[in-house]
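Course assignment 3, question 2. Fill in each field.
Student: A.L.
Task: Predict the tertiary structure for the chain below.
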Amino acid sequence: MTGTGHASLRIDTAAGSILCDPWVNPAYFASWFPFPDNSQLDWEALGDCDYLYVSHLHRDHFDAEHLKRFVSKNATVLLPEFPTSEMRDELTGLGFTKFLETKSDEVHELDGGLKIMIQALTSPTDGPIGDSSLWVEYDGIRILNQNDARPTDLTTFNALGHVHAHLLQFSGAIWYPMVYELPEAAKRAFGKQKRDRQFDRTFRYINDLKASHVVPIAGPPCFLDDELWQFNDIFGDEGNIFPDQWVFQQEYAKVGGTNSIVLLPGSVLSLSADAAETTHPVDSLEDFFARKREHLEEMRERKRPVIEAAKASWRHPEIDVLKEMKRRIEPLLDESVYLAKGVGGPVRFDLVGYDGASVESIVVDFPEKQVRHYADEKVRYRFRTERALIEHLLFVEEIDWVNSLFLSCRFSAARIGQYNEFVYSFFKCLSEERLQYAEGWFDQQKPDAEDIKLGDWIVQRRCPHLKADLTRFGIVDGNTLTCQLHGWKFDLPSGRCLTSVGHELRSRRAGAPAPDGDTGAVAAESVVGQG
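Answer field:
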């Protein structure tokens, strides 16, 4: 295994090579950079691989510019079984043509005896609608690249045999608590709690798998913009949530951990059943991390032009922000049931103008299903950011504000009450496909799914394919129901899917008794149910 930075690595076997999550270019409004710096590796050689694995669409894992320029288009993409086609669509757009569509938790044997298994996580709260882990076996040697996925347990991987190297996240990857408008002492206390929880979660996973060796990856990012410099863990702040690999080794040792291996960009780990031999591009890991601030300051100066060029591209004064937010968001508010109810109140955006002083306040009013100017009412959540950032999101028609604005940490926030996951779930679902999936997923968490009446039929409310609301997208023509979101068809008398194997639909004629055990209640009647 060759370390290539952050969550990225290249796995080489006699049966082929797998490049995982290559990330080099700054992410999230040029706020995140990989640490240590990996931009000077020989990416032409590293990208000449047999297989490509991208764990999920977070931009510190999915670097479109780098994938397009440096990764061989002859590589076969190992595709997680995600609920939407977004990852395949994105990679196809970059020029990739070979895909192995894996089945979650199913072992796939590739050429030469190389075996892989990908476990896909599909909750709306997992990454940007999905996250995953990669298990690899060759010649009896097994590794688990868990990266920053958070499965409920690791029993599926344990059942496949002893793992020799376990690669997993240990550092923070979020904006809490740094951006919250709190007293510094409170932020430090909350940060320490989160830092401790991160380590505890990592140690639990390590103990569950009991691999021969542990490799801390998927963090930390570094912050090279002067405005964000304070987020780097170089100031002795016990509340900093971005500890590095050397700090992990020290914390792991406190709980008896002696089997960890640090991979810098360019480090090479040769793994066998009985041993692990590592070479590094530096003479001393301890000395390298002792000089962390010096490395960061050198990177900051070298990357300053990159950051300044990015900032110059964000302003779009021609954008009417209120008008465009209304156009983009109000139709989704109209369709949202579970997310809107979960948010439960208005969310306010304070947009700071180009002059750094003037502020325009816009409210996304979830109960009233509208976007409007702020009217001095109490709000549940408030975000303050530069107007230019929202202009850019609207200009590029960004569908995931979490995977752009919020992870950038280029904002401040205040809230009433506890953390509300529905706020962030909604703002990562600013597309028809994502919103319908998220709504359907939350709907499925109820013990009794709702039924609706479409024409002469009683059917389940959510399409079995990607959980679209059939009161909006269902069309009945004779004995066939079509979900217009993706064009999937179902035979109503049998419930059989006519588009693909599986995905049966619960359906019966109106007036017919419900089958035993069917407790779904008719919740709505669609006025577009006739074809």
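Instructor remarks: The longest helix spans residues 184-209. The first strand starts at residue 2 and ends at 3.
Grade: pending
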